[in-house]
Design goal:
444 residues; alpha/beta; six-stranded mixed beta sheet; four-stranded parallel beta sheet
């Protein structure tokens, strides 16, 4: 298989990063990649999707990695997994990797081990320069589920029409399911037996970086990784619901400029020139002449260590930094004075955040289950809402119209191949009900 053929297969299948912002995977491929890093860190607490794929499809992942190595001419692939999860891997398959180009790398049980900058350092010792992407150091970082989706596309011609999702939190049991893309989240929870949501709120993603779900409108997308249910009174929910105006007022009144948010920042500990306390002060005190304090928010990964672990005043530097980063992006403003750190800071080892500490600080210890079951729930939504922008880049444009008949896997929208984007497919068989500027709505 040629480089171009693989790119086309992945583009046609609509494969994007399944564990983050949804970067179109075919655009990550490069002949400059020398090391492929598989993100198997399962970074945030209560998330279990990658665990189940590793446990049941490890050989498929290995075969796909060997294909990627051949096509891109890379040297090695490294599966970065926390040591505590090594028991999930088939020992025979792990043993068979000895002397091959695919390696298993045990990484520490820290947060945020899944941040691509942190993961790259923990698996290779390389530090991605500020404002750069992994390929700048010869690395491609790819999620476990994304690799599995490539396997399904290459071997079975399958496009991304379903998504693995962990449902957990304040529940009797936690499960991982596979649901149609475009299904209403409320309908999914109800079909899976989680219909008593009185006094509860749902987060799409992990407790640190996830977003609150609008149960009446939000749907499953290609990046939906987990649906975590918490009481509305829980501090996680209260923090995510706080208006930015109130977050800024609290910061202006209570920040004592102790610098702990900067001192504990995982990226600063890797040598990045990011000073969260300066961003916090500049934003909360309207110090608009201090442009650098705003622009450095571009280096923030949004992990939330500053908020949950570092700040003793219970402020939210994470929310402020990400708000600024988003607004700068909308205006096309970039930080110009990026650098390449030469080494990590000496204090890094002493300031790493163990996952167990994070769980206790979040107040979710009682929600951590000893077992998360992989359940085969047969979802049959009457209607799906295929969002046209489930990825980084340009939204897809519908290629169907109301009244068209579609089958599972039929293409319903595309971004032009030369643009940054991907392809969308029907996840149920039926009739296109309506096409809007946001959705292709299909009715069974």
């Amino acid at each position: 298989m040629t480089f171009e053929e693989l790119q086309k297969i992945v583009y046609d299948a609509g494969i994007v990063g399944a564990g983050g912002a949804g970067f179109p995977t075919h655009r990550k491929f490069s002949d400059k990649v020398k090391q492929i890093i598989v993100n198997a860190a399962e970074c945030e607490p209560l998330m279990m999707v990658d665990h189940h794929i590793l446990e049941h499809h490890l050989q498929a992942l290995v075969d796909t990695l060997n294909l990627l190595l051949d096509v891109m001419g890379a040297d090695e692939a490294i599966i970065g997994i926390k040591g505590k999860n090594m028991h999930l891997l088939d020992k025979k398959i792990v043993s068979s990797l000895s002397g091959t180009r695919v390696h298993i790398k045990e990484i520490p049980d820290i947060y945020p081990a899944g941040d691509e900058v942190v993961l790259t350092y923990e698996t290779t010792g390389k530090i991605i320069p500020e404002g750069a992407i992994p390929v700048m150091v010869g690395v491609m970082v790819i999620n476990v589920e994304t690799v599995y989706n490539i396997h399904c596309a290459v071997t079975r011609g399958e496009s991304v029409t379903q998504k693995y999702i962990t449902i957990g939190g304040d529940t009797i049991e936690d499960i991982t399911v596979k649901a149609p893309v475009g299904m209403k989240i409320k309908e999914l929870l109800h079909a899976a037996g989680y219909d008593n949501l009185q006094g509860k709120a749902v987060i799409n993603g992990g407790p640190m970086m996830g977003k609150l779900v609008d149960l009446e409108n939000d749907t499953v997308t290609k990046t939906t990784k987990g649906l975590l249910i918490f009481p509305e009174t829980h501090s996680i929910i209260q923090r995510k619901r706080m208006p930015m105006s109130m977050t800024l007022k609290r910061a202006s009144a209570a920040c004592c400029n102790c610098t702990m948010c900067s001192d504990m920042c995982p990226r600063q500990l890797l040598g990045y020139d990011i000073h969260v306390h300066k961003t916090l002060r500049a934003a909360s005190h309207s110090e608009v002449t201090n442009a650098e304090s705003f622009l450095q928010s571009a280096l923030c990964c949004g992990c939330g260590v500053c908020t949950v672990i570092a700040c003793q005043q219970m402020l939210d530097p994470q929310a402020i930094s990400m708000e600024i980063k988003g607004e700068l992006g909308k205006q096309g403003l970039r930080r110009q004075n990026n650098k390449a750190p030469e080494k990590v800071r000496d204090e890094r080892t002493a300031r790493l955040v163990p996952s167990s500490v994070l769980i206790d600080k979040l107040g979710i210890r009682k929600y951590v289950k000893s077992h998360v079951e992989r359940r085969d729930v047969k979802f049959a939504p009457k209607t799906v809402y295929i969002e046209l922008k489930q990825h980084v880049g340009k939204p897809a444009s519908a290629i169907v119209k109301a009244g068209d008949k579609v089958k599972v896997g039929d293409v319903v929208a595309q971004t032009a191949y030369e643009d940054l984007g991907t392809t969308m497919h029907a996840s149920i068989a039926g009739t296109v009900k309506v096409v809007t500027d946001r959705f292709v709505i299909i009715e069974r």
